[in-house]
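User: Please predict the structure of the protein below. I'd like the answer in structure-token form so I can feed it into my own downstream comparison script.

Assistant: Understood. Taking the following sequence of 408 residues as input:
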Amino acid sequence: MTARGTLLAGIAATVAACPLWAAKPLKDYSFIRGVNYGMNADQATLERDLGYARRLNLNSTRIWLNYQAYEKDPQAYLARLRNYIRTSHRLGFSTMPILFNGNGLDPDMLKPAFHPRGDAYVKAVVDAVKDEPGLLMWDIMNEPFTNSYWEKAAPDEKGTRESEITGFVRYYLSHAKKLDPVNAVTVGYTFSKELEPTADLVDVLSFHDYTELRSTIEEAYRVAEDVSRKFGKPMMNTETGCIARANPYDVVLEIAEKHKTGWYLFNLMIQGYWDEIHGLFYPDGTIRDPAAIAAVMGFYRNRDLTTILKPAPNREGHAERTLKAIEEALKDNTGSFTHSKTSTDTILDAAERAANLLESAEMVPMYAPPSAQIRFWREQPPDKRDRDAIRAFAYDLGLLLKKYCLLY
């Protein structure tokens, strides 16, 4: 083979191995490892947050747009969107913008009178960024039926309202496709059972799953896969993972990998309205749940009782020595001629040893790690520390260590 032939063969092999965003729509989106995010951050914050995501080898974000925010200052809004997509692309991320949001749906949007307003907004947004190489696809509407207009409708009105919402979604699927025949379109449905009414128009089937059991998550995938086969369309899970819905990140990602499905976690940052129940990173780059981070990297917690090896913190006698250190630290050296007391630093040293043993063996709840409390006290001036609280804390850690290491 000539040198030129070798070069061309290498290029062809690279193209075959790596999905190119320009070759759209794709037949397979299983390579997507994304997070839901927003485009309201300033440039420094955007680059910082995406930097965290990049360290996890994530490669896409899904962001909410808003026609009302666009109408307040169209040019500034489009410039911000364009900058977001370009910044993300430079950092290694594709972008899925969401044009409309079904959450908090305004019923007036569903009326034909809204079309001139909606059409102008969609045209402006699509025309502004449809040629950006970082654009992955358009999500026409997020969760069309997750709103009070449909959920609280009287039984005899439910069908009519469902038809109204579906009509709106189908209209803007067609409208967006006319404006941009190249990039893929999808609809981010709340449940996979909702996919069929627009499956003929979308390029990609997309559903969300926040259900509570492995069996219900598997069922969501089964339904989506049935629709995928029926219509010959690829599928994705574009929202998943929630502490408050018994939908752990490490569980949903393990199942997504099993089904070879692209995904978007909700969401990237532990910040804002959803901070108590969603998110991977705090703004300073620390994390809440190492199991979630491991799962993003493809490593999952062992839940097989036949192979689990329980940690033994006292294997080398460190638990026993730690208990003695706590006992010694809690003995204040007071007598007839002296009133000296053990320093709080010494007590905290003994408590930290216990905390490190208990935390590394996962023998204590980690929603408020003992080491976090120790850090809190260490950052205070010694004369401002609550000595009695520190003593009680160290004593309780000692009891836990004694209990779990069977040191009786």
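That's the full token string. Strands lie at 33-37, 60-64, 94-101, 137-142, 184-189, 205-209, 235-240, 262-265.
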